[in-house]
Amino acid sequence: MSKEKETGKEKRRIRQLARYYIPYKGLFFTDMFFAMLGAAITLVIPLIVRYITSTVVEKPLEQATGEIIRLGILMIAMVLVEMYCNFYIAYYGHVMGARIEHDMRNEIFGHYQKLSFAFFDNQKVGHLLSRITSDLFDISELLHHGPEDIVISFIKLIGAMIILFVVNPMLACVPLVVIVVMLLFALVMNSRMKSAFKENRRRIADINSQIEDSLSGIRVVKSFGNETEEMRKFNAGNDRFVDSKKVSYRYMGIYNSGMGAFSTLITVISLIVGALLMTGGKLGAADLVTFLLYINNCTDPVKKLVNFTEQFQNGYSGYERFLEIMSIAPDIQDKQDALPLKNVQGEVTFENVSFHYEESKENVLSNVNLHVPAGDYVALVGSSGAGKTTLCSLIPRFYDVTEGRILLDGKDIRDVKLKDLRDEIGIVQQDVYLFAGTIIDNIRYGRPDATDEEVIRAAKAANAHEFIMELADGYDTDIGQRGVKLSGPRIPQKPADPDFRRGNLSARQRKRKSRPEIFGTSGERQDNFRDCAPAVHNPECKADSGADGEWNCGGRHT
């Protein structure tokens, strides 16, 4: 990529980042106003000191005393104003940053919800988690502190240099030359630190993934006595993180020590040159005092810029990672002319369907043809890895077919609205996932506005009501993360019936329901479906798969 294109890309990213200020522009401009006011006060106070030391002390004692007291009260009032400015910046500025972080977290979490299974198949939870937590915190700190630090630093630095040139142009050249060298040093170190900080983020994301994976499977770890192995893997990732931090800290050490040395050097050289000018009668004592006070105003902005550089590296590298996720377009979404799905009967047809995952060109399903009339029960029976779950996942469009098409009541499922399609499909996953909370919260997950009576009716339909009532708190029992507080065989599954999600669940409707039921099972569990007619005897149901392994489907018309 050419330098011009790279520069243009960076400018677009900066503009995109700046748009997060728009909802809080009132708070932003107020924050900037108090930042500028506080910086201006720090420039005015040394001028008052110079006036006192050079002019007021030369006046008669009584007149000088009164004026010193008045100017002292003025300086104390200015300090109090500066104190309020710093409070406003620290409090309301952080509130603005927190609100921006809130907005960005909502945005990226909402984007996660839109992405398909294919995206999550290729991601680690720890990496995704770091983007929504630590990355966003660093971005919010940059958006809060960055503008005000730059404004304060430039006002102090430029204002101090102008005043110094007015006081004594020859002596003012000393801090100016040192500051230019400081900036060149900062630019060189800045580019080196940027890559180091990005590597730190990748390493901490790896650690988050390792922690999430290990703690999620802690029961398996303990069952196999593999605590030592898990500790070994964690230590390896942790050591890699320390190595990357060492690199960044080496650059930071050089950077901070160099900047600190330059800051002290300004004072030392200015004092030496000023003393020489005083001996030659070209500089007064009051002007030298003023110079030393303003040199502090020059070094303070430099320290702020040091902090800003580190903050910028953290925040901007986090923003780049944020944009990496936000730039991923959902690969499964509604067409612009997608049609609503109404009066569903439930006839499902696969026409020459082939499918492969993104990371592989080898088909999991090849030229599958399957017809399931409304009201049929179909069991897909085959060995593990034959493609049974994959086939079922294509119907609600968790993945899109590579070739061919799937019809629901004669309509291509890609031509109807995705939400309508999934509202008509009830799914019980192989790996039942229960969210932290109560039993009633999990049952109500498919339809948050369901009443308690509807939840109980659904639980009875799933034959779960009796065992739930045996628990100490009944439906209000806390089940823990992934339902760990419940024994496996007794875990209640969320009602998969679409009638429940639409609030239409009743015994009469369940009896009249005409939708087909399709489920997959491994070959060793075929005995569970002896009452389903074999596929070879059912001309309505025929399927072939090119995956490693074969499966048949059995159907029974109800």
Verbal overview:
- The chain is α+β, with helices and mostly antiparallel strands and 558 residues long.
- The protein is 61% helix and 8% strand.
- It has helices at residues 3-18, 25-54, 61-114, 117-121, 125-132, 134-167, 169-216, 218-223, 227-279, 285-326, 388-394, 418-423, 439-443, 452-461, 465-470, 498-501, 507-512; strands at 348-355, 365-372, 376-382, 403-408, 411-412, 517-522, 551-557.
- The strands form two sheets. Strands 2-1-4-5 form a four-stranded antiparallel β-sheet, covered by helices on one side.
- α5 packs antiparallel against α7.
- It starts with a helix and ends with a strand.
- The model is unreliable at 488-495, 502-513, 528-552 and 554-558 (pLDDT under 50).
